[in-house]
Amino acid sequence: MVVSSPCWACGVTGGADWINVDGTGVLVHNARGRERCPVAVPFDWATGTPLAVLAGAVAA
Predict the structure, then answer these.
(1) Distance CA 2, CA 29 (A)
(2) 43: alpha, beta or left? (left if phi > 0; alpha if psi -120 to 50)
């Protein structure tokens, strides 16, 4: 039996995966047709550096 865990960023059920989109790591929800998680912070795939600007953060 496979039991999907909730998204660790926002709690949506159905599982989630990090995927590489043009060099950016993006968290997507599997149960919603690979919909991007609205709260997970994307990152530079090569370096692992968080890209807070892409997540909607405002520069101080």
Answers:
(1) 16
(2) beta
Note the pTM of the prediction, 2 decimals. Answer: 0.73
Q: Which of helix, strand or coil describes residue 9? A: coil
Average pLDDT, the chain: 82
Could you read off the pLDDT of 27-56 as tens digits, one per residue? Answer: 999 877 889 999 999 999 999 999 976 555
For residue 36, how many other CB atoms are within 10 A of its CB? 13
The structure tokens listed for 24 are 């950016």
Q: What is the C-alpha separation between 19 and 25, in angstroms, rounded?
A: 6
Beta carbons within 10 angstroms of residue 27's beta carbon: 21
